[in-house]
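Table S2 (text version). Query chain:
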Amino acid sequence: MVTFDQLMLPLMKALVNLGGSGSIDEIYEEVVELENFDEETLAVLHNPEKSSQTEVGYRLAWARTYLKKAGYLENSSRGVWALTDKAKQADEIDSREIVSYVRSIDRTPRAGAQDLSDPATAIEESPEEMLAWRERLHHILIEEMSPDAFERLTQRLLRESGFIHVEVTGRTGDGGIDGKGIARLNGLMSFHIAFQCKKYKGSVGAPEIRDFRGATVGRADRGMFITTGSFTKAAIEEANRDGAAPIDLVDGDQLADKLKELALGINTELVEKVTVQPDWFLSL
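Corresponding structure-token output:
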């Protein structure tokens, strides 16, 4: 398994290929393509008991953090990451120098040895700490919420996202279809969707996508597969296979982001920061 510093250059190349900016998912898929990671590597979860985040995704999060602190990346509140002018002007980067620089500006390094194979020893404000709420949410969805409640959550999520006539049809012999609804575009166009929502700790593979697509034939214009887990590379390719009805995929991280955006069971608190400006007073 590559270390997070070894993913810095592929990450920047991925952003170049994406036109200079991209979402976390777009960056992930592009890096996977560039590095040609195999299914076995991509199936490894960072902490199976707490999160659906893959080890590759976890280390990419660290690579983004370091590159941002070093001035090569910036990100918006909508989760889009982009190359800065500094990155665009750089002919090449030295990941070791970036690691050394970021650690030098950190004022509260963790005690003990700092092994690049374990990013958690690097700096105080880690991606793992920033994503702690995701782990708590993952535990609730997987361990505490019943399958019926998860289906109702999906129904609410789709309704809040603008879908209409959303119904849960699970356990009625619909061949894997847990519900259906209608998506409306600008109030003028609409299409019928069938969805499947599954509580998984691991990864959903291509066979599950093929089975679900088969169940949607003749029943919906397109399908949506929502899971608390992740999707294998083969599953993503199957969902977007040419000549087949498209299947939209929503993994655990995307589900968490959407619940946070819609404030469904997740509250975001903004902490007020008060700063005294001496120059203002002394200029009077």
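Notes on Table S2: The domain at 4-130 is CATH 1.10.10 (Arc Repressor Mutant, subunit A). Confidence is low (pLDDT under 50) at residues 109-125.
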